[in-house]
Task: structure prediction
Amino acid sequence: MHLVGDKGVRRLRTGLPGRPLRVWRDAGIPIPLAGLEAANASWRFPGDTPLSRGIQTLPWGGDDFRIALTGLLWIIDDGEHFLTVVHPATARVLYLPLPPGQDFALRVTPGYLELLENPREASTSAPRRWSLPWLALLPHFAKLARPDDIATPGTALIPFPNH
Result:
């Protein structure tokens, strides 16, 4: 899969054994897995995003934070317990640890990020939910906002952390 932005094409590589199970862009718009499997799959992302203008410009006190998520890529891989967030405009990536469980769906609301465990996989009949307010992600968004000055040509991502 290629990420196409104003700064050129960046190839998306995921860690082993991980391969994308679910992928979303911007404020939680699903990207079909069939499109990811094609060797020449390309996804366009803007070079100028709300986050690339700096975290001070984000609507922290506003009614809907989702506008600030334009230009982000969200990935859950199999075999990994991280939500990978990629900001192609700055070639930055971060890994957010997932709570216990598996087969998560991502829901982006005006006030928080929510993970919902598939009830078929859950040990109870009701799905388990975890939510995180956007303000709690401020330090992570600060890392995504800074441009990567020493990016390796042709790649945008670093390997998964060794935790």
User: Anything to note?
Assistant: The longest helix spans residues 138-145. The chain is about 10% helix and 35% strand. The chain has one domain: 2-145.
